[in-house]
Write a structure and sequence with these properties.
- By secondary structure, this protein is mostly beta strands.
- It has one domain: Porin (Beta Barrel), CATH 2.40.160.40.
- The protein is built from 1 helix and 12 strands.
- A 12-stranded antiparallel beta barrel has the order 1-2-3-4-5-6-7-8-9-10-11-12.
- A hairpin with a 4-residue loop joins strand 2 and strand 3.
- The longest helix has 14 residues.
- The radius of gyration is 19 Å and the shape is globular.
């Protein structure tokens, strides 16, 4: 009886901070230690160039190596740069949490991350993205504050595009260097009170996402509201809509929809 109570308390503690499991960005907190997660994400947009609805599908495998380190690996398929769905890119991501300050119904986390992507695409857009659009590297820091049912997080990072054309002499057709920033907030709506890890969580999010390129003076600022359901403390369903508030970038689209599903296998790593 005591063991069952401790297990339940542990799972509730792990997912009580679900309001920082952002849909469009990563928090400074990590997934549970020794766990494995699988995630499938779909993104849909109407291309400004082709005028048709295009999509990208990402399959991701994530590992919680320990309480401070997690790593991701992902592959993408899309028809955004072709007439039909095809294999597009591979990428890897690692995040290390280096600061933890815990309190009653609150905590503060800071983490550093790095990401690398290899894509078959040659993008002619100003926006730098490692989701599948370009080959490149990215590194940055994340700070997340949880205050009871509200979680606020900010991310600052630098992106370097490594796609073809970077080393050619003369003026560049597209940017290759960018500064990225985000400000995200999440609020736990349901349940009003935790009594079991089987309860369904409802979290609402709003995220401000921006980018400014260095080598060409281009920028955008997006707003992304989203909703999230967590089932049995193991499965997450995310739904989000992203749209541009302002900018002067030549982008594939200024609006997009996102839908993802993730399943966590606790204690899967020995």
């Amino acid at each position: 009886m005591k063991i069952n109570f401790l297990i339940t308390a542990l799972l509730v503690t792990l997912f009580a901070s679900g309001q920082e499991l952002y849909v469009f960005s990563e928090p400074a907190s990590n997934m549970p230690s020794k766990s494995i997660s699988v995630k499938q994400t779909g993104k849909w947009l109407r291309s400004a160039m082709s005028g048709r609805t295009e999509s990208r599908h990402t399959s991701e495998l994530m590992f919680g190596m320990n309480k401070n380190l997690m790593v991701h690996g992902a592959v993408t398929f899309s028809d955004m740069y072709s007439s039909s769905q095809r294999f597009e890119s591979v990428r890897t991501y690692a995040k290390y949490r280096f600061l933890t300050i815990d309190g009653m119904y609150s905590h503060f986390r800071m983490a550093a991350f790095a990401e690398a992507s290899h894509s078959r695409n040659v993008s002619m857009f100003d926006e730098l993205s490692l989701e599948g659009d370009q080959s490149g590297v990215q590194a940055g820091i994340i700070a997340t504050q949880l205050l009871h049912k509200l979680a606020v997080s900010t991310t600052l990072s630098l992106t370097e595009s490594l796609q073809k054309g970077r080393s050619l002499p003369g003026p560049k057709a597209v940017p290759y260097q960018a500064f990225n920033y985000s400000l995200s907030a999440g609020y736990l709506v349901l349940p009003k009170k935790y009594t079991s890890y089987n309860q369904t969580n409802l979290n609402l999010y709003v995220e401000l996402l921006g980018q400014r390129t260095y080598d060409k003076q281009r920028y955008f600022v997006d707003l992304a509201p989203a909703a999230q359901l967590i089932f049995n403390s193991q499965a997450k369903l995310n739904m989000g809509y992203r749209f541009q508030l302002g900018g002067n970038m030549h982008r594939m689209a200024e609006k997009s929809w996102l839908l993802s599903f993730e399943w966590v296998f606790l204690n899967a790593l020995k």
